[in-house]
Specification:
By secondary structure, this protein is α/β, with parallel strands linked by helices. It has a single domain, classed as Aldolase class I (TIM Barrel). Helix content is about 35%, strand content about 30%. The chain contains ten helices and twelve strands. The chain has an eight-stranded parallel barrel, surrounded by six helices. Strand 5, helix 3 and strand 6 form a beta-alpha-beta unit. It is globular, with a radius of gyration of 16 Å. About 0% of the residues have low confidence.
């Protein structure tokens, strides 16, 4: 059985790590270069770096910052935010990213998934899928959760897989920053209908939440931010707990 992955997320705004609830009321959580190094040293399986205002401000992800983070870590590193072309991805992979995450740009132009998978390989392409309950169904939202779309979440995830995405980063806007638990229903739905790995995101608050999203949500990886940034849960403690609960994990 493949080991489940624990992934800290660095949400970046103006070169600093920030965290809020539902992407608003952001507070400073530290220097992304230092945090990335700390997480790599503490046993994180991967790292995700999202420039959360890049799409909103129509600005490119901070390539220089990516270089600095990549230089200090030895674990796989995914970067997202404002990516819209092969040139953007080329610059980020050259700066040290292992994978890239596309979100709003893929909704605008689904062929971007095909183009990137063809150019760089599916293993490089992560679809960032932000979702919320709109009119009683899970639908895709973009622009940091600000903009609802008519796309149904499961249908979009399936289409992304068919187009060549190698992984889905599924963020529930219901849960983001609330610490009330991952959205198990939609996570399980996506995980059981797709053949590619699903990273669950949005809502982690306790160690039990991770156990539940792996066991009931069938997620391949779980991502969290503030509980790690503010030392509410330490990664090694979480991994020890999950191992005791008979979940395959790398210590």
């Amino acid at each position: 059985m493949l080991a489940k992955r624990i992934i800290p997320c660095l949400d970046i705004k103006d070169g600093r790590t920030v965290k809020g609830v539902n992407f608003i009321n952001l507070r400073d959580a530290g220097d992304p270069v230092e945090l990335g190094q700390i997480y790599a040293d503490k046993g994180a399986d991967e790292l995700v770096f999202l420039d959360i205002t890049a799409t909103v401000e129509k600005r490119k992800t901070l390539v220089e910052l990516v270089k600095k983070v990549a230089k200090n870590i030895n674990i796989p590193f995914t970067v997202g935010g404002g990516i819209g072309s092969i040139e953007d991805v080329d610059a980020l992979l050259n700066a040290g990213a292992d994978k890239i995450s596309i979100n709003s740009a893929a909704v605008r132009n689904p062929n971007l998934i095909n183009d990137l998978a063809l150019e760089f390989g599916s293993q490089c392409v992560v679809l960032g899928l932000d979702t919320n309950i709109i009119e009683n169904e899970w639908r895709v939202v973009t622009h940091g959760g600000r903009k609802p779309t008519p796309l149904k979440t499961l249908a979009w995830a399936k289409e992304a897989q068919e187009r060549g995405a190698g992984e889905i980063l599924l963020t529930s806007m219901q849960g983001d920053g609330t610490k009330q638990g991952f959205s198990i229903d939609i996570t399980a739905q996506i995980s059981t209908h797709l053949d590619i790995p699903v990273i669950a995101s949005g809502g982690a608050g306790t160690m039990e939440h991770f156990k539940t999203v792996f066991q009931e949500g069938k997620a391949d990886a779980a991502l969290a931010a503030s509980i790690f940034h503010f030392h509410e849960i330490e990664i090694q403690d979480l991994k020890q707990y999950l191992k005791q609960e008979n979940i395959a994990i790398r210590l």
